[in-house]
Amino acid sequence: MKKYPFIKYSKTSYSEEETLNRSKAHLAHYDNRRTVREFSSKLIPDEVIQNILLSASTAPSGAHKQPWTFCVVTNADLKKQIREAAEKEEYESYNSRMPPGWLEDLAPLGTDWQKPFLEIAPALIIVFKRSYEFKNNQKKNNYYVSESVGIACGFLIEAIHYCGLVALTHTPSPMNFLSKLLNRPENEKPYLLIPIGYPLAETMVPDIKRKEINEIAVFL
User: Which residues of the chain, if any, have pLDDT below 50?
Assistant: First the structure.
């Protein structure tokens, strides 16, 4: 059975003091991350987007299958089609699919079925998960696909924020229309739709608080 050749790996380590300082700096930087729905139409350089996607693709994956495809949409006509299809699904969700409790939880955030950011944001990244591959006319399964793609999306969001851009994780349900509009093969299923870009000069976000450490972690 074929095996990967193993190569030497080294990771820079720091003193205990520097490790603590870096952890504080990292927390301060990412505590500033917010989900944004108000985008500038300013274009993002292609190389920036490519580097962000390559950063996301450094994520670990089951058996190193890297079961993801990132579709980047900047074409205005296609963004309009995506918006129209997404709003159709969102209208149904807000008016008939979502139970009352869900709508009550969303109400303080001021969201509704209208999604203008899908046209305004300069780029949409649609993440697809690949459940299997076809190689030499044989079907080859991928493993831990949802987990692997979820980790890659975390890396993707972090890379977007690191570059000074903003993003929104959007999940219109169902999302099958994305497969049709983007002409994706049957082994790919839409996982997440992420508009990215620069924020408006005066961007408003809800005044929310994140949970404290004792609410999110247990130390045993």
Answer: none
